[in-house]
Amino acid sequence: MTTFYTIDSANARIPEVRELLLRLRDDREELVRLRDQLAALRSGGDPADGPESAGIDASIEPETPADEAAAQAEGSSPNGRDAVREGQRIALRTQGVVDQMQASVATIDGWGIALRDIQAGLIDFPALVSGRQVWLCWQLGEGHVDWWHELSEGFGGRRRLADLA
Description:
3 helices, 16% strand, alpha+beta
């Protein structure tokens, strides 16, 4: 069953949502940093020279058996063992951040709120107006809910609450 928000109930939820959205944005930035560290470690370079600095979007890919064999071979030297340990540390930290993000998203979802964009901190609250469902729209940086849009429209279709009839 869908939970419908009034303007007042949506505004009352904003402080909790704001906190989670800020945490999600920070966690997302941490994931990017960890991905770059892991890519640099695998390539033997410096994270500052990683794919992000070259404008390349590298994602963390699962290790193949060849990668595992190379890691084991590297693990036989002191520097190789350090690299393997660092890779394991990064992988564990990455999983921890992903787990935190999943918990935050689950909380927002449990409140019946639609998370639209982590970086922008954009969310929609389901609402009923004159028997039709609409979205009350809010994003980080806004004081309270001032916008709405039809279900079929997105952020670009936002209109002021004063126009809601």
